[in-house]
Here is the input.
Amino acid sequence: MKILLAVDGSDFNKVAIHELKKMTLSPNSEIHIINVYEVLKTSGLGLHNMGGRIGN
Here is the structure.
């Protein structure tokens, strides 16, 4: 089994980690963890979310 776990520090993420720890995995299982965060950019009026796509 291959599992991708996106970590963002949220309460939902903590529940997902707790559930993952309870799972019985086979010895050849793989867990890949990525850290997800939101980039904020300042402008003259305050903070604004900036999104984008790969390749733009």
